[in-house]
Design goal:
Strand order of the largest sheet: 1-3-6
Number of strands: 6
Strand content: 15-25%
Number of domains: 1
Radius of gyration: 15 Å
Oligomer: single chain
Order of helices and strands: HHEHEHHEEEE
């Protein structure tokens, strides 16, 4: 997927706000969640969330629309789901020999701090619900806009 194809792909995704306004099914959530691992925290502090795509990815994106992204990150409206995606990533367990679930960090992000035109429905969201819950944010959020949440209940 070349740069032009990626740009065309991103332009073709439905922005969340447009989708919700057209469908008129629910309000834009006030908060979304992103989980990561402590091994990536220094890059997030330095570049912002989504500012540096790591070489070791959480999932195998080969052959998908997300294979060649240069910035951005995935979020979910449910903190448990965000945590689950990281905890169940075989790629993380394989890439980090000393990794365990205590390494998972959960952030909440206020949607008022996002450019909603960059928030898109995750094309991999296969939930059976009427409303999608997983999104891709094609942008960068400064570390100061992230709130660390407790992961004790997960």
């Amino acid at each position: 997927m070349g740069a032009n194809h990626l740009k065309k792909f991103l332009l073709g995704m439905k922005p969340l706000k447009e989708y919700l306004l057209k469908e008129n099914k629910k309000n834009i959530p006030n908060i979304v969640y992103h989980a990561t691992i402590k091994q990536r925290l220094s890059d997030i502090k330095k570049y912002g969330l989504g500012g540096k795509i790591p070489k070791k990815r959480f999932w195998d994106y080969k052959g998908t629309e997300y294979e060649h992204i240069k910035q951005g990150f995935f979020v979910d409206v449910n903190p448990e789901n965000a945590y689950y995606y990281v905890e169940n990533s075989d790629e993380i367990w394989d890439a980090y020999e000393d990794f365990d679930s205590s390494d998972i960090i959960l952030f909440s992000i206020k949607t008022k701090d996002l450019d909603l035109s960059k928030l898109h429905i995750d094309l991999n969201d296969d939930s059976n619900e009427d409303e999608p819950h997983s999104y891709f944010y094609d942008g960068i959020v400064p570390f100061e806009k992230l709130t660390k949440e407790s992961t004790k209940e997960y």
